[in-house]
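Below: protein 1.
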Amino acid sequence: MTSIKTVGVAGAGTMGAGIAIVAARAGFNTVLFDLNQDMLDRARRQTEGFFGKSVEKGKLSEADAQAALDRLKDTTEHAGLAKCDIVIEAIFEDLEVKRELFSKLNEVCPPETLFASNTSTLSITEIAGGTGRDDRVVGMHFCLPAQLMKLVEMSPGLNTSEETFQEAWHFCEALGQKPVETQDTPGFILNYFLVPFNNDAIRLVESGIAEPADLDRAIKTALGYPMGPCELLDLVGLDTQVRLCESFAPVLSDPRAEAPPLLRRMVAAGRLGRKTGRGFFNYERDAMFGG
C-alpha cells in the first residue's frame, strides 16, 4: 500500500508525458509541470491520442480513459506542484539544471514530499545534494516508453533514508510497475549496456554495413528485442542520446560510450527522432508510441 495520492511530474517531454500517463492511468491525481506551455499542450494531445488508441484496442473503457484524462492537470508554475506527495523529475540530463529544479521545489513543497529523479546516468547522491532534503530523494528510472514498459530501476543515494526508499518502492508497485533495486552507479543496469550498444548500432549505419530498417529487423528477429536500436533511439531522441554519452563517457572511460559523428550530425540537422518527425525513420508529428 502507498500513502501517496497526488503525483507531480516535472518535464513534459517524451519521458515525462509517459510517466504522467502511468500515474493518471493507475488512479493518481497527476500534475505535469513544464515551463513551456507548448510542451504541455503537446503532451496533452499525445496523451489524448494514446488513450484513444487504448480504447480502440480494448485495453481501456471510454469511461476509464476519460477518468484518467480528468485526473491529469498541467502547470507552468513550480508552485503548482506544492500539494504533490511525490515529484518525479524527468528533465534532460544536466546535473546543475536538475539540482536547480529541486532547489526551487524544496521551497514550495512540504517537507514530507518525496523527490524522485528519472535520471539514467547521473548520480542520485549528487542530485540529492542540491535539494535541501537529501534523505527524501530516490532514483526512479522508468524505461521508454514509460506508458508501455513496466521496469523501474530504483536507486537510493548515500543519504536516502530506508523509509523513503520503501515508500517509493510501494508507490512504484501501486503504479503497476515492476521495481528492481540498483546501486547509485553510472548507467545503473540498463544504460550501462544500452548506451554503448546503441552507439555500436549507429556506427554500423555510419559505416554502411546496414540500413537502419535492416539493422533493426536483424536485432528484433534474432535477439527477440521488441524494438530495434534505431527505432528506440528515435523514440528516446537523438539529442538525448548525445547528452547520455556526454555524461556517461567521462565516468565510464569507454570509447564505445562516446557519441558517434553521425549522431552529432543528425542532431545538428534537427533530425532528433519522433519529436521532430524525422530521425533514422520518418514519423507523424505529435504521435505517441503505443496505445
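Below: protein 2.
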Amino acid sequence: MTTASPARALDLIFSPTPPSARAGGVSLAVLRIVAGLLWLAHVWWKVPPDFGEHRRTGLWFWTHLAVDHPVFPPYSWLVEHLVLPNFTPFGWLVLVLETLLPVLLLTGTAVRLAALIGIGQSVAIGLSVAQAPNEWPWAYAMMIGIHLVLLLAPSAQYAAVDAVRAARAGGDAAPIARRLLAGWGVVLALIGIVAAVKSLGDNFVAPRGRGVGYPPLQLFLGDYNMLAAVLLLAVAVLMLAAAVVRARPLAMIAATIAAAAALSIYLQLGRTEVWLGGNPSTAAVFICATVIALGARPLRVSS
C-alpha cells in the first residue's frame, strides 16, 4: 500500500487523462473565489465623493497614469478628454463595477456576467497603468486570462448561488442551499470574531474600525468597529440557524440586517464620523451575505 500510493500520485500528475470532474469543478471554484478576493481587496480605496481628485490620490491618481504613462495612445486620449473631465461619474461607475465583481464572484452568482465585467475592468486597468513605474504588465494579462476561464469553464458548480439555481431547475436544491448558507455563516462568523477581537477596548461605534486581513498579502476583508462586528455575527448566527432548522424567515432577517448595514456604510462613505467604521470592502462583505441569504433557497426538500 505504501508503494502504491506514490505510484497513484505520480500517475495523477503525469497521466494524459484529465482529473475527475469533481476535482476540476472544485479547482475552478477556488479560482473564482481567489479572483473575488482580489477585487474585494482593492475596492476599499474607491471612496466617494471625489474618489481622490481633490488630493490627487486614490482612483484619480491611478486613472491619471494612463495620461502620464500611455500604453495605447488612443485610450490615453479618451482618459484625458472624456474620463478626467467627468471624473466623479466615472468614479461611481468604477465603485459599482468593482463592488459587483467580488460580490458576484465570491457568492457564485451570475458568474459569466461577472467574468465579462472582470475582463473589461482588467483591460481598462492594464491600459491605464501597465507602463507605469514598478508595474508588471503580465499581471493584467493574467487577470484577463483568469476571467476568460471563469467565463468559459464551469466555475459555479460548488459554493455558488448559481449551483442552487441550477439544482432548482433540475431537481431538489435544498441540500445545496443549506450547505451554501451554513458555509457562509461559518465564514462570516470567523470574520466577525476577528473583527470583534481587534476592536476590544475601542469605542463601540468608533469612527474607524480595525481592518480585518493582512494588507501586505493583499487579503483585506474591510474595516469593522465593534458595532459592525456584532451585526456581522448576528447575520452569521441567523444564517447558520436558518440552515440547521430549515427556516426561510431567519435567512430573510439575516438578508435584511446585512442589506441595512451595507446601505449604512455607503451613506457614511467619505465622512469623518461614521456608524459602522466601514469602507467599500466592508459593504461588499455585507452585500455578499445578503445575496447568499436571498439566493440560498429553498431550505426544505420539496415534496
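The longest strand covers residues 219-224.
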